[in-house]
Write a structure and sequence with these properties.
With about 250 residues, this protein is of the alpha/beta class. The protein has one domain: NAD(P)-binding Rossmann-like Domain (Rossmann fold), CATH 3.40.50.720. About 40% of the residues lie in helices and about 15% in strands.
């Protein structure tokens, strides 16, 4: 049983790996034995991350909002390693605004990154797997806000809800190709991106709404990430797994 999450011989692509959860996911997968392809727009951060990881790491630029960038990325992946085995579709962004203050630019940017970008990457990843006649695992990083809404987050919640449905649709259609598609729906996780806010009075008050009365840590996602990446989840597809300290079951 100790080897059930072993990823030796597997290659994982992690998008949005330059900071936050993507950076942590890359380290977790490497520690489990996977070779890595890490990608994002901030190449300097990726090179720094590569230096922090013991194992094989390929660093490539990727802007998920650009079809040209995604196509170039997968062309380089194919020429370098062929096809990978695992995709952690993590790249995302947010622009908190009240609905009445939303504009086209903000709305389109969040939807383009979090939903259309995830589609582009997953589609090209899938095409390579099918071309090579091999199976694989796609892990979309959704959010509890794709299952339940919050204030000032209409565009983000809409994009993540779309990603949840995309996950299920992909899972249904790709199952016969031995490509599993699942999603992790994190709650509020403490990262370098949000630690300033959660140190404020408003942030501390928000934490009180979480039944477990704490923020999640990046390491709290390790178990489900390794589950979905490995053969331990060989009979799982179309699953949306919340990791949220009970936030979704809060009484209304």
């Amino acid at each position: 049983m100790k080897d059930i999450f072993n990823l030796d011989g597997k290659t994982a692509i992690v998008t949005g790996a330059s900071s936050g959860l993507g950076k942590h996911f890359a380290k977790t997968l490497s520690a489990a034995g996977a070779n890595l392809v890490i990608c994002a727009r901030r190449m300097q951060n990726l090179e720094k991350l590569k230096d922090e990881i013991d194992g094989e790491v390929l660093v490539l630029p990727l802007d998920v909002t650009s079809e040209e960038s995604v196509l170039n990325f997968f062309s380089k992946v194919e020429s370098s390693i062929g096809s990978a085995d695992i995709l952690v579709n993590n790249a995302g962004t947010s622009d908190p605004k009240r609905f009445k203050d939303l504009d086209e630019e903000s709305w389109n940017y969040v939807l383009e990154t979090n939903l259309s970008g995830a589609y582009r990457v997953a589609k090209n990843f899938t095409d390579l797997l099918i071309k090579d006649n091999k199976g694989g695992s796609i892990i979309n990083i959704a959010s509890i806000l794709g299952l339940r809404v919050g204030i000032n987050l209409a565009s983000y919640a809409t994009a993540k809800a779309g990603l949840v449905q995309l996950t299920k649709s992909m899972a249904l259609e790709l199952a016969r190709s031995n490509i599993r598609v699942n999603a992790i729906a994190p709650g509020y996780i403490l990262t370098e991106i949000n630690d300033d806010f959660f140190a404020t009075t408003d942030g501390q008050n928000y934490i009180k709404n979480i039944p477990m009365n704490r923020l999640g840590l990046e390491s709290d996602l390790d178990g489900v990430l390794l589950l979905l990446s490995s053969e331990a989840s060989s009979f799982m597809t179309g699953s949306i797994i919340p990791v949220d300290g009970g936030h979704l079951i809060n009484p209304l």
